[in-house]
Amino acid sequence: MEWIFDNKDPLIETFLSSLMLFTAVIVLTRIIGLRSFAKFTAYDFAFTIAIGSILSTTLTSKTSVIHGTVAIASLLLLAYIFSILQRKFSWINSAISNAPLLLMKNNQIIEKNLKHARIEKSQLMAKLREANVIQLNDVLAVVLESTGDISVLHKSSNISFEDTDSEILEGVRTKP
């Protein structure tokens, strides 16, 4: 019966450890930067790694199922609380997620933003080719998204960057 529940399981320590590890992974991912884990926000990455680690530990060690379940439940509870807090307090969202960064404005490459994001000009050019850009004058904006993806906005007609709908570029940083 010990494989289901063990009185010696430190359930409170497990919950606190989960909180500390979750926070540490978010902080480290924010320090390392967006390109480290393309397609994930720091929050998504921390949650995915933590759940995988708990499952692995529970399945491959003498950790009881209840102990592992409490750890996973605590992470799910944290994720739920964070989702509520992110909607109520915008500063929490900016603390755990990177804001998108402008890499090109019209046909001008913003070198300091490329350097800050640790993206080589050749990588940017490859992304422009993927987006079927034939001339730099065809580019309205290029944005490094919070997931690490690079979005290319094409010019249409004589629309300039300043004429772009403000909602499209809402929250995009122009400076690192």
Structure, described:
By secondary structure, this protein is of the alpha+beta class. It folds into two domains: 11-96; 101-163, bsu07140 like domains (CRO Repressor, 2-Layer Sandwich), CATH 3.30.240. It is 51% helix and 10% strand. The protein contains six helices and four strands; from the N terminus they run H-H-H-H-E-E-H-H-E-E. A four-stranded antiparallel β-sheet has the order 2-1-3-4. Strand 1 (101-105) and strand 2 form a beta hairpin. The longest helix is centred in the middle third of the chain and has 24 residues, at 65-88.
Contiguous uncertain segments of 5+ residues: none
Overall residue-averaged pLDDT value: 84
Give me the number of helical elements.
6
Rg calc: 21 Å
Strand content: 5-15%
Shape: elongated
Secondary-structure element pattern, one letter each:
HHHHEEHHEE
Helix content: 40-55%
- How many structural domains does the protein architecture include? 2
Strand order of the largest sheet: 2-1-3-4
Q: What assembly state would you assign to the polypeptide chains in this entry?
A: single chain
Strand elements, count = 4
Distance between the termini: 55 Å
Structural class comes to alpha+beta
- Let me know the largest β-sheet: 4 strands, antiparallel
